[in-house]
Design a protein that fits this description.
With 315 residues, the protein is of the alpha/beta class. It is 32% helix and 23% strand. It has one domain (3-9, 38-91, 110-311): Ribokinase (UDP-N-acetylmuramoyl-L-alanine:D-glutamate ligase, 3-Layer(aba) Sandwich), CATH 3.40.1190.20.
Length: 315
């Protein structure tokens, strides 16, 4: 099943630091790199590397970063025909990564911040065969909150009206979500920080994640997956609540782990995998991503994921 990612494209400016700085503190870094990123683009690359037909809907600036960001997507196999080029700068993310792989991120939206209702209207509709002899070909829509909420809402309304499955990564978390937004989302995938901000609960472990997931389900989203990093993921659906442990791996960089998870989840669900199996598969994609530095460069290929699962007693 095709995947369309509606969201952000950023250039990540990454500093390696011995530890994350405190407020007002200056640290000497140990390295610096520029890496194509943005939660939307990361998820698109993740899905494409896993073999899904993937398209990106978003905006870049007319600067050097914008050209690099689109080229990186195309190199990964992502269709960029629906990426607009705006006058002005592209989005950037300022990232500190410490020796344990933990990070701090500041995002400056740039062109990503120009999105409006018209962006949602650019979302393709499911395609019918010319002779109408076959049903509409559906797709899965992946979205995040690094673009204006009005654009995300417009895309969700358009997708929902045409039977498209909508997965939303609520990052960064927002306090201004309208009550009816949750009903437009089929699967919501906050991490523990975002689940805390959305619900007001202190999400720290499996038990508190289950409570937060149920709160979010009561607002109208059918399935909620709370990503807990090294503690795995908690899933609450209309039929069951369960916990999928994380794969124990050496951590180099956690910057795009959540994006890898979402890309893997969309691909697995698009292939018809049951929810529990899809979450396990997505967890493997995320585990492989944290073993490498960078956002898009860390996204694994399908053979790597399949080999990883076999090595851990899963298929």
């Amino acid at each position: 099943m095709p995947i369309i990612v509606f969201g952000s494209l950023n250039m990540d400016l990454v500093a390696q630091v011995p530890r994350l700085p405190m407020a007002g503190e200056t640290l000497l870094g140990t390295g610096f790199t520029t890496v194509p990123g943005g939660k939307g683009a990361n998820q698109a690359v993740a899905a494409a590397r896993l073999g899904a037909a993937t398209s990106m809907v978003g905006r870049v600036g007319d600067d050097g970063f914008g050209a690099i960001l689109c080229a990186s997507l195309r190199q990964a196999g992502v269709n960029t025909d629906l990426v607009l080029v705006d006058a002005g700068p592209s989005g950037v993310a300022l990232i500190n990564v410490d020796g344990t792989g933990e990070n701090q991120i500041v995002v400056v939206p740039g062109a990503n911040g120009h999105g409006d209702e018209t962006d949602g209207l650019r979302l393709p509709l499911p395609v019918a065969s010319p002779d109408r002899s076959k049903p509409l070909e559906p797709y899965i829509l992946l979205m995040q909150f690094e673009v204006p909420l009005v654009a995300v809402q417009a895309a969700a309304v358009r997708a929902k009206a045409h039977g498209v499955r909508v997965i939303v990564d609520p990052a960064p978390a927002r306090s201004d979500l309208p009550p009816d937004f949750y009903g437009l989302v089929d699967i919501l995938t906050p991490n523990q920080t975002e689940a805390s901000q959305l619900t007001g609960l202190a999400v720290q472990d499996v038990t508190t994640a289950q409570a937060a997931a149920q709160v979010l389900r009561q607002r109208g989203t059918a399935t909620v997956i709370v990503k807990l990093g090294g503690q795995g993921a908690v899933v609450a659906s209309p039929s069951e609540v369960f916990h999928v442990p994380a794969f124990p791996v050496p951590v180099v960089d956690t910057v795009a782990a959540g994006d890898a998870f979402n890309g893997g989840l969309a691909v697995a669900l698009g292939e018809g995998k049951p929810l529990r199996r899809a979450v396990e598969w997505a967890s493997a994609v995320a585990a492989l991503s944290v073993m490498q530095a960078g956002a898009q460069p860390s996204m694994p290929t399908r053979p790597q994921v399949e080999a990883f699962l076999l090595s851990h007693g899963s298929e």
